[in-house]
Predict the 3D structure of the following.
Amino acid sequence: MSKLKPKLSSATPGQTLCAIYARVSTSDKGQDTENQLFQLREYCKRSGWRISKEYVDHVSGKSGERDAFKDLFADASRKLFDVVLVWALDRFTREGVWKTFDYVQQLTANAIQFESYTEAHFRTTGPAGELMLAIAAWIAKQERLRISERTKAGIDRARRAGKRIGRPARVYDRVRIREMHRGGMSLRSIGQKLGISFMTVSRALK
């Protein structure tokens, strides 16, 4: 379940326009986004930022397929605000460093900054912003390498155990194919009859 609150107002000239994103999982019993929103609104007030929209999801953060989350990025592509403010990274996404960095990159590519309210070290605003992005990029790269290495190790282990990797081989009766072909059936008709491709029938007859 997602809820997108209406646009509140536009910024006055020179004022930062902020988009707030808040999320709780449906499994987070007793939690409510209002706790996050209250602190984020107060932070915007202290920072002199005008709130553009509040994007609120009540779903798991393990996927980017969240209604308000997708709306946030659609509006970001139209540059409707200057900064995205979240309560914490795990409220923004739980998809891992790689995807988190990718999302932040999408924002910065549209000249939009990113701030985590409870994590001062994860903000693109301020003098440390570029350093944070560089560190996040390096961590994301290491995560990609670890995922690749784990996948390769798993495949190697499966092969050593004698397991077949990839799509399972189709089982078909070569003798029957030859008999059907000698009986005058075309290769395409044989394939349709046995549920195999034209090329498979052709290879079986060689």
